[in-house]
Design a protein that fits this description.
Layout (H helix, E strand, L loop, with lengths): L6 H13 L6 H13 L4 E5 L2 H11 L7 E5 L5 H8 L3 E5 L10 H5 L6 E7 L8 H11 L2 E5 L7 E2 L2 E2 L7 E4 L12 E5 L2 H10 L8 H6 L19 H32 L5 E3 L6 E2 L5 E5 L6 H10 L5 E2 L19 H9 E4 L7 H15 L2
């Protein structure tokens, strides 16, 4: 992933610096409002990363030690780590082979009387079935936290992926479609929940630093609960506001490249490219290909691609296979392990050309013996 950053972002950051207001301030507030509108949410709360956003989402849902939270192992490790931040136990569930996402069935298979929440990921930008999983979580009496790190610009049932989410966390890391360098957002519809999230990201203060400094009268703030410093700066938000204007165009471009990949790969035996689910559309933040009886191994494919100047990557990681979770013995996760071991992610970014795609697919054709 190559972030699309230009002179407009540089100018916006410079303007923020020149304004003298570089910490969390008016540009953050504007970015929160505009991002929430873009993803179909009532309120946005800017934070320092998607990871801190997931942490706060569990805090406001009162997840504590002794509780279990169901998560996909097939996700960046931050998804599972956030559960440990609150002292709860992550329980790994398997995923759907086509989408890489949790389903009602895979969650139900590991649900126990200690389960208090589910973190569902829109993996690589492919939306999970929001209607089915939200309805199931409500019926089970579980909090549903949506890890939308990769999902800006994706849709489910004709609406932005964040529409209707009780709480969702988003990422602006440089590998995402839009970036603020580092940074994240939590979106909610409940205004009272938004107020508490803003308090929690700023040391538990009952009045924000921006409002305190803007007041013409002395303000004696109070600290209402033990909280965190998870703020975004106005410099980051200035960049984010410009990036947000690019989102629709970036999604359109990536979907066009994804469609062309799918067409070019269609007649190569043993390769199954990721596609939209029936209920939604991906922003194709990642374009992965699953090996299904391909004549050489995934690692051999990666090695040959690299030798031909193609920077492909291994499939999405599985947290339960990492040393950090060596103390966890999950239920069988056959689909998760297959996807992480037998898939690779092909280049897809705004600088990609049709010639690049032809070269990449040509290497894959050679490996397939076609």
């Amino acid at each position: 992933m190559i972030p699309m950053l230009g002179e407009e972002e540089a100018q916006a950051a410079a303007d923020a610096v020149r304004s003298g207001w570089v910490a969390q301030g008016p540009r953050v507030a504007q970015f929160e409002k505009e991002f929430a509108a873009a993803v179909g949410a009532g309120h946005g709360v800017a934070v320092s990363s998607c990871t801190t956003g997931l942490h706060l989402a569990l805090v406001v849902n009162d997840i504590k030690p002794g509780d279990e939270v169901i998560v996909p192992s097939l996700s960046f490790i931050a998804t599972a780590n956030a559960v440990r931040y609150v002292g709860a136990t992550p329980i790994f569930a398997d995923v759907d082979l086509a989408t890489g996402n949790l389903t009602v069935e895979t969650v139900d298979a590991v649900r126990t009387e200690r389960t208090r929440a589910v973190i569902a990921v829109h993996q690589g930008g492919v939306p999970f079935d929001t209607v089915a999983l939200r309805k199931a979580a409500e019926g089970w009496g579980l909090a549903l936290v949506e890890d939308a790190a990769c999902a800006a610009g994706s849709t489910a049932y004709g609406q932005p992926a964040g529409t209707g989410a009780a709480i969702a966390a988003w990422s602006f890391h440089p590998r995402k479609l839009i970036t603020t360098g580092e940074g994240g957002m939590v979106t909610v519809d409940d205004p009272e929940l938004a107020v508490r999230l803003r308090r929690l990201r700023e040391h538990g203060m009952n009045v924000s630093a921006a409002d305190r400094h803007a007041s013409k009268q002395p303000v004696l703030e109070a600290y209402l609960e033990t909280a965190y410093n998870y703020r975004m700066t106005d410099i980051q938000a200035a960049v984010g506001l410009v990036q947000l204007t690019r989102l629709a165009g970036l999604v359109e471009q990536r979907r066009a490249f994804a469609a062309r990949y799918q067409e070019l790969l269609a007649d190569i035996d043993g390769l199954v490219p990721v596609r939209d689910p029936a209920y939604g559309q991906s922003n194709f933040q990642s374009f992965w290909v699953l090996l299904d009886g391909f004549r050489v191994s995934r690692d051999e494919v990666l090695t040959e691609l690299a030798a031909k100047g193609v920077s492909a990557r291994r499939g999405i990681m599985a947290a339960h296979l990492e040393p950090a979770y060596a103390d966890v013995t999950p239920a069988a996760l056959p689909v998760t392990e297959r996807i992480t071991q037998e898939s690779l992610i092909l280049p897809l970014h705004h600088k990609l050309t049709e010639d690049d795609q032809d070269h990449i697919v040509g290497v894959l054709r050679e490996l397939a013996g076609r």
